[in-house]
Amino acid sequence: MQNGKIGVTTENIFPIIKKFLYSDHEIFLRELVSNGVDATQKLKALASMGEFKGELGDLTVRVSLDTDKRILTISDSGIGMTAEEIDKYINQIAFSGAEEFLEKYKNQTIIGHFGLGFYSAFMVSDKVEIVTRSYKEGSKTMHWTCDGSPEYTMEEASTERSRGTDVILHLSEDSKEFADKARIREILKKYCSFLPVPIAFGKKQEWKDGKYVDTDQDDIVNATDPLWTKKPTDITEEDYMEFYRTLYPMAEDPLFYIHLNIDYPFNLTGILYFPKIRNNFEIQKNKIQLYSNQVFVTDSVEGIVPEFLTLLHGVIDSPDIPLNVSRSYLQSDSNVKKISSYITRKVADRLSELFAQHREEFQKKWDDLKIFIQYGIITDEKFAEKAADFVLLKNTEGKYFTLSEYAALVKENQTDKNGNVIYLYTNDPVSQNSFVGAARDKGYDVLVMDGQLDTHFIGWFENKNQGTRFVRVDADVVDKLIEKENNLKMALSSAQQDLLRPVFEAQLPAEDKIRYTVSFEPMAENQMPVMITQNEFMRRMKDMAAMGGSGMQFYGQLPDNFNVVINGNHPLVAEILGEVEASYGDKLKTTNKKLDAAIAEQRSFEELVKDKKAEDFSQEEKDKQQEVDKKVEDLRRQRTERLTEIGRENKLVKQVVDLALLSNSMLKGENLTNFIRRSVELIGK
């Protein structure tokens, strides 16, 4: 028997392991199973080189659990260890403390470093035993024991075992969760599903006599030759789909896949899938699984996969990805950037190829692909350069165009008087149907931009293409969406507009977070009598704020501002004017005369004192100014109050305002019900 102390000068190495190496205790099982796999792989390598001439036999790595005794055992039939090798890999970790320990192993990225991975066992164990026998001829079975202190015992085992190693964990009280079979199976499924050596955990079960009973067949928890390790030429379309269903059993079938396979300047294989995304793309992240030599490492791959591709699903496997010492997370270095750039290029090339060779199929998938491509364009400049040839725009007729095709389509007809090309769009073809129809009646083409990232994409596009602007169809009346030389004259005088403004304002909804501004425009008689529009800039800023755009919170707190545009040339508006004048009667002429006289007096006074500053006014002048201003204000208030009363009683005003609200999907609840009843009454007359 050999007694000794593990070669450390600190009081206890194990708190160091717990604090510095492993943030998640469940990783111990991954490390120990990986060690067993590594020992098995080494034996197979020795056999292939002729250095081991014995029978390989059953190479399954076995995990067994005694729940009652809280004993977990990981057994392999690999190369095993001699007493000298135990001393080298387990006992003689010669360093002076945690800092030197971490420095010594910071570049260890090889799964299966026995000494390092082995010590993770002490995170969950009161005592750990190793029973091992080397493949070398004449080797003895050795038994090593340690209770978590620097002291250990090593002796020849009382019972011989065949070639290989058993690692026996006596689980501690605070780690009893790992004495549960379901928990162990869960961890094995997570980390070991694709290890290259069979991993058995217990026996397969069958239903017999009213209960599940063990069979004599091992329950193998992994697939030893996962799809990404095979050549693409040997894989069918159905194989790719079936593998996706294995990875994501509850997901819809993906749009398509990309098989990654590179061996220079780094080794990397994998399969990335484009999933169908329905709503919030944020919840779809963390779906790519990162492996190192078929051992699962993490599904947080932001460091190695460009941000926009974290929306993808699938696997990436590379022994060259730099991991921290516990293989729990990525370390940043130049290799990561190279791998990231390669993946970006590969994805862009695949999309470009699909578009060039199968455009019709690409277009059918565009509505689902759009979010990936737009996300890539706005976050990755190199991808944006490559994507310029296959990013598509879709119009309200369901036709698809590349950026260059669409520019050629609309340049002639949709260039405004200042030389800007205007791309009209709708984010809701149904609710904005009247605006879309008005634009198309003018011969304009209208795009559908209803995606989650369209606002960001529009901003990116306008920044890259000076002289081209996106304008939503409800941002203004149709004649002002693309400003041309307009020869239409306004039928209403300024005085008549002032008369009608409070009449229409009287019928606008009173809401805390919405503001309405009434204006008059000269439009064709066949256009709507009243339209409600929203300024493109302010609406876009509020959209960005709603998506959490940086620095946009201010806009998000502002009320929604809408323009109520009255068609000054519409017959109904002329009819309303006549009704208002009739309702006001002769008093209107009297009030207008008094108001005109008061305004004339106000202007005369202003002309008289135009060369004086307000602080230089005499008291008489101050009193005069106050008198004329009050006279104008009182007369305007009296007229506005009367016009507001007339407006509230005028059903035709209410009807045309509600029609405008309805066309913007802004008429709801009781107001909608009243509109329907009023419409029936008006039809019946």
UniProtKB/TrEMBL annotation:
Gene3D superfamilies: 3.30.230.80, 3.40.50.11260, Histidine kinase-like ATPase, C-terminal domain. Residues 612-632 are annotated as: Disordered. The keyword Nucleotide-binding applies. It comes from the Bacteria. Keywords: ATP-binding, Chaperone, Nucleotide-binding. CDD domains: HATPase_Hsp90-like (cd16927). Residues 24-175 form the Histidine kinase/HSP90-like ATPase domain. The keyword Acetylation does not apply. Belongs to the heat shock protein 90 family. This is Molecular chaperone HtpG. It comes from Alistipes hominis.
